[in-house]
Task: structure prediction
Amino acid sequence: MAEPYRILTLNNISAKGLDRLPRDRFEVASAIQQPHGVLLRSADMHKMELPASVLAVARAGAGTNNIPVAALSARGIPVFNTPGANANAVKELVIASLFLAARNIGQAWLFARAQTGDDKAIDAAVEKGKKDFVGFEMPGRTLGVIGLGAIGVEVANSALALGMKVLGHDPQITVQRAWELSSSVQQALSLDDLFARSDVITVHVPLNEATRHLVNADRIRLMRRGSVILNFSRGGIVDTAAIVAALDSGHLHGYVCDFPSNALKDHPKVITLPHLGASTGEAEDNCAVMAAEQLLDFLENGNIRNSVNFPEAVMPRVPGTTRLVIANCNVPNMVGQISTCLAADNVNIADLLNKSRGEYAYTLIDCDGNVSEATLQKIRAIHGVLTARLV
Result:
């Protein structure tokens, strides 16, 4: 029997996810030597020294800021995430935050809790003070959704059900998400167009240099007075100083986010939550199952699904063949050089898939018969090949 794949876990991973890794084929532990795969949630990998044995990293979650993706890419190591696995959990919290902001629920709750005296005195204070918490209703209001991935699409569709008008902006929307998005969602011509036409804006994009401070003072000024901004994506997408200034001037009605800071947590028009977006038992289970299944399929079959750094590459296995898996730099004549190595060893190619993504590419080859160790070493020696293995 072949040696089991060794999986290092850096966080507590849902048992439902770990159960997808059969114990006769996988050894899973939080302390393991020479792992083939790493499974994690929020652990910071940037200062870790990963051994040469590591073939893949899988995160049970969407964001990969805690993973040194660029360094792993250069080593030919795919990084998997789980887009959509926690979408319902985040969507429910975003919809809840709509009501928190619109009806001033957090502030009103604090006001009610602060009352003292007997019930008659509290009742009188409440009747007098409730005018300070007048809110607004959803029907007829416009929600602007920035980012139409799994979460953004669910938020947009749910907002329509509340009677809201919905604008969406995502130049990179996938065909899959477009099919899932209601046809009633209108397309914003640009981000500035979306800000100018929205009463509430919610952001659902990853944090990178292109999206840092995407919500800034200039765009906030385009919004209608009394608008609301929701951020359950990443803190850095929103310019906190601009938000506070707009709240203080009365231009913004409220801000709800999942990222407390000293500038925000005590502001009377802000509700900050302790990063609760995906904090449900169901979301943790879904993410763990998806991450484990992707890791298993890559290690045992070489297939890549939902990688943030390598192309999607899924090919059914041809029965009775040996599969060759190669990650390489995206340079000309790579497939030709690999084919030449195989031909020199009289190895016939039964099926082949080659995909590229930016500066990296990935190749799956099903070969009739065996591929010798010498041929495998020749392929590994080709300039630009990052990894090559048989599965």
About this structure: DSSP finds 13 helices and 16 strands in the chain.
